[in-house]
Amino acid sequence: MADLNEIKGLVEEVNKTLVPLRSDIDALKSRDVVDEDRLTKMADSVTAKMQAIMDAQAKEIAALKAREIGGIMPGKDSAEVKAKLDAFLRKDGEKGSLEIRAMSTDSQPDGGFLVLPEVSNTVVSRVFETSNMRLIANVEPTGSKSRTFLIDDDEGSAEWSGEKTAATEDTPDLGEKEIVAHNVRAKMNATADVLADAYVDLPTWLITKGGDKLGRAENTAFVTGNGVAKPRGFTTYAAWGAAGVYERDKLERVKTGSAAAITADGLINLAGLLNGLPPEITRVDVLTNSADSSRLDPLLQHAPRKKWSVSDHRLEPDAGLAVFTLERTD
What is the Cα–Cα distance from 83 to 4, expressed in whole angstroms? Predict the structure, then answer.
């Protein structure tokens, strides 16, 4: 309000000066004879006074505007501000005592919301270790809930007898093995909205993840499954009661070393058993874990008669023996 009153006072002073000038001009107009020189001097005087008044008003208005915008007074304050500005620029933008207000991205309300992150098309995926048991398993397709097999693991008897001695009857028995088909599922749900609006191919991603998990669950069951609503793993079967005495639904166990590692003597013992296999068995698969595989390779290379030659964790085809490394079964 004080600034406006000051401007109003300046205008009133100008009006007071103009009133006598108008009276002089009117008086001159009423005369018949006017001294041209005198009139010219009066006009020049009036023009000079008006210009001086206008210049003063312009300076006052400029000072008022500067005071309103910067909150400072002209004169000494202006020089101080100029000095501070010069120091600010020379210090490479250090803030110093000046207050600077600007938008930035390190604060969300001050502008961070305006900068959107860029989403990459690259997906960093974890690779899960597993062992594909279908490579060595005998796959039997079926359209029923189970599949049965005949087991021919018995034998008849043979005896020496005289010409008239009656032969003892001994007919071999047959067995039956039933393998039940089990269900394995991967529960992965997604709403219609996320399927439609996701920026990645979500259906394909879910199918891939589900298939990978189904495969790993199958591999685990084939090795360590307990047979309850799932396949029974081969490592869960009991061993024969006596070495060399066959028992159905049990496995023969051959000691190939200690609990800590495979030894050369144990491997030679295994080799002796394999060399005595009947000719009908043309392929033998050896399953081992990663730790034992590194110990097994050099032992196989120095096995008797060098029958086993290892190449990339597999024996050569003509050796009749394949080594598979089981990375993981879970």
Answer: 30
